[in-house]
């Protein structure tokens, strides 16, 4: 008789385990799907997804820069990628129409907003895939990649985010 009383608890336990396993599986699947790719979203619509190789196939920009960090070691070296506006042009040639700002988001949901004037026609903000000629490794490898934002004119690295996974353009209807 005692065993029959435990059956509902066992069933609930099994359901909880299955639910947790499904959550873990879906989070690993989306991490693997997004690893090394960059989604471009314009007004809440996914328009394109770029890999590091596709980004490097666009018009390249290369700069030497030291990114000053308040919490980690400074990084000095050569950063290679493409201007953010060039990437957005490849996703949608009309992305500038009415754009107010552009948000870049990292894998850990850290994000930075750039005013449209900072992005449009400027090589100041770069999507970077190479550091000193080598591909940026991913978060699991303890690196800053596979993609990151580097802001050429910023002395400090607070807007040069790493583990980049998403670029969103906001052009609210008027």
What does this structure look like?
With 174 residues, the chain is of the alpha+beta class. The protein is 29% helix and 34% strand. The protein contains four helices and ten strands. It has helices spanning 2-34, 52-57, 84-91, 116-119, and strands spanning 37-42, 45-51, 61-67, 75-83, 101-106, 111-115, 125-131, 134-135, 148-151, 164-170. The strands form two sheets. It has a five-stranded mixed beta sheet. Strands 3, 4, 7, 8 and 9 form a five-stranded antiparallel beta sheet that branches. Strand 3 and strand 4 (75-83) form a beta hairpin. The longest helix is centred in the first third of the chain and has 33 residues, at 2-34. Mean pLDDT is 85; it is low at 27-34.
Q: What is this structure, in a nutshell?
A:
The chain is an alpha+beta fold. The chain has helices at 2-34, 52-57, 84-91, 116-119, and strands at residues 37-42, 45-51, 61-67, 75-83, 101-106, 111-115, 125-131, 134-135, 148-151, 164-170. The longest helix has 33 residues, at 2-34.
